[in-house]
Amino acid sequence: MVADRFCGHVRRHDFFNLCGPAPRTGGTISPGRAPARTYPRMSASLPPFASRAQSRPRGNGTATRDVLIEAAIPHFLRHGFEGVSVSQLAKAAKAFPNHVTYHFGGKEGLFVEAASQAMLRAAKQAEKSSLNSASVEEHTRLLISNLLGPSSGTVMLFAEAMLLARRKPHLSTRIKATLHQLNDAGEAAMVLTLMRTGWRTRVAPSVITRSFWASIFGLALQKAAMGKAFEQESAEAVARLMINLDNAPGEKKYDSPRP
Fold first, then answer.
1. Is 73 within a domain?
2. 98 lies in a domain?
3. Could you tell me the pLDDT band of residue 14, with boundaries at 50, 70 and 90?
């Protein structure tokens, strides 16, 4: 079963408590050349991207590290990487500049960590904004409009962190982990959405999720480079592409039979 196999995979990773108890029934695939994947409708609403409370003990070092990240996120969002100094970041966290070096190896490490955490939060917020969508099309457009609208600064911040990691290979581990988390959590959220609504898809949720994030980061870079000259037709093209992947031919909804 698609959902069971994926949820089993998610439970082996400690990031979001996405799946909850494993469902007893699995998905079915319709016959045909381009099969549509369907999932049993669930009566209970399972919120995607639900955070898992961390129970690990938090010493002074961990607390200082967290405070630095929280203080850095708004500064980096306003000024970017180049526009803020280590001393300013430390002052905002009521810490010392050597704390940035101790916990992150320097400003670059703090920037990548702050951008990664901000991106995961933006993804969670986008998923929440589309939770009650009435159709696949509405769901897709809400996700894109949220990430390229209110959260566009955060998406661009993470895109900048990815470019920084290209020049600083030692930072790539955190970037890769964040991308895997976005893909895995997004796939899990999509599986839960399909199970809850009974919508159909042409391809596996993992394919749709990876295509979605690749498109979002590409659009963010294009929007940042073009500014006001950015053409909304580019975002519309991505929306149409994702809608086409999500929907089975000629059908927007599928009421799965009761077990």
1. no
2. no
3. very low
Per-residue DSSP letters for 115-158? HHHHHHHHHHHHHHHTTT-SSHHHHHHHHHHHHHTTTHHHHHHH
Are residues 48 and 189 in contact, defined by beta-carbon separation less than 8 angstroms? yes
What are phi and psi for residue 235, nearest 5 degrees?
-65, -40
Structural domain containing residue 125: 2-8+117-246
Tally of structural domains, the chain: 1
User: Kindly report the CA angle at 115 between 111 and 14, in degrees rounded to 5?
Assistant: 115
- Examine residue 186 and state whether it is found in any structural domain, yes or no: yes
| Amino acid present at 128 | K
Residue 169 in tokens? 């290979």
Please tell me whether residue 51 adopts helix, strand or coil conformation.
Answer: strand
Give the pLDDT confidence of 24-46 residue by residue, as tens digits: 334 433 344 444 555 444 433 33
The radius of gyration of the chain from alpha carbons, rounded to an integer in Å, stands at 20
Q: Is residue 30 part of a domain?
A: no
Is the pTM of the predicted complex or chain greater than 0.70?
Answer: yes
Other Cβ atoms within 10 Å of 95 Cβ, number: 18
